[in-house]
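Worked example 2:
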Amino acid sequence: MLAYSGTNQVMTIDLHIHSTFSDGSKSPSEIVALSVQSGLSTVALTDHDTMDGTAEFMAAAEREGIEAIPGLELSVVHRGKPLHILGFYLDADNAKLQLGLASIQQARE
């Protein structure tokens, strides 16, 4: 979690949250509710190799009036070592992205 004080406004954000769509313990809607209760102003859903929870997450955030960032954590291997890459403001409906994610998920299984 990061607290940022720019002008006269303090923003409290968390840009790395996982839901039950990957290895988290809360649904996207529950994450939004807990974020509001915790006083967060901005949250990003960054499940591993999937954006399947994005629609639920964005809808819940809109209802609650919290800024939501659609994101993703890609699991890759670089020079034989695992590496996790965070991406933000991605289009969960992008066909090429979904095809790539399906390929990653299939290779993992």
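The radius of gyration is 15 Å. The CA atoms of residues 4 and 10 lie 6 Å apart.
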